[in-house]
Amino acid sequence: MAILMDGKALAAKMRLQIKEKVEALTAAGTEPALAVIIVGNNPASRFYVNNKKKDCAECGIRSIEKAMPEETTEEELLAVIAELNADPSIDGILVQLPVPKHINERRIIEAIDPKKDVDAFHPENVGRVMIGQYSFLPCTPAGVMEILAEYNIDVAGKNCVVIGRSNIVGKPQAMLLLHKNGTVTICHSRTKNLAEITRKAEIIVCAVGKEKFLTADMVSEGAVIIDVGMNVNAEGKLTGDVDFEPVSKLASYITPAPGGVGPMTRVMLLQNTLKAAQIRAAK
Ligand code: NAP
29 alpha carbon to ligand 1 midpoint, in Å? Predict the structure, then answer.
């Protein structure tokens, strides 16, 4: 039976460490601050933004919210971003995605000052991840790497399979595993013989978005399983991508979902905001 990798507990531990650093930085004259912009009334976005504000409050990070109506124009949103870019008291800027369809998401991401881009979605930060010289890492893959480190799982030389190639999870995840000297295969919807590939994996990161996608026949005994997926099942319950019960009988380590990668994603945003404030303080 696999050892459960408790992302919730690790995130709580990290929040305490972040809080201490935030308090010290604030006492020394630099109060870390995150600005969160939300456009429209998407209930999921509202939920995520509220969580981000709550997390900031817990760690002593000042958070400000810019709530804008659904009909906000791209130019109006860009103007708010420009204002926050110019505000020296703001360390991190985050636009909650998705933005309404009439707004060009790419243009919005690229308008954020890369030094304040605590989501690490700006092309400059994406490039920095590629070359391994970064200030910020994208929160979900960075959270996964923290979990692996916490459980002393050495990536070097291991066969790592990432399922999913999105810009925010799969691709950067593969790069971070590569930086740790993993031998990385990226799989996606056009991959042939997926189960053959995953059965050779010693570490699998599954980021697809389909309940019970990773089944026991796709996993070798002793594999480390990271479940990034976040799905709502037919009973309205939050689930991951992994068929948990049977897979956990084979795996050596596994993340639960919920309670694995999700809380780590949240805490990495705080970590990035703290980092941005530390850079400001060092100037
Ligand atoms: P995404 O942009 O929809 O990407 C999903 C990926 O899965 C795509 O690359 C897609 O391949 C691949 N895929 C789909 N069907 C497949 C199949 N049959 N075989 C192999 N690959 C397949 O999603 P995302 O933003 O990366 O997120 C993935 C999941 O993680 C979602 O459930 C999301 O909610 C969750 N998530 C969780 C957290 C967290 O904090 N826990 C954070 C971010 C995301 P193609 O590229 O070929 O289409």
Answer: 41
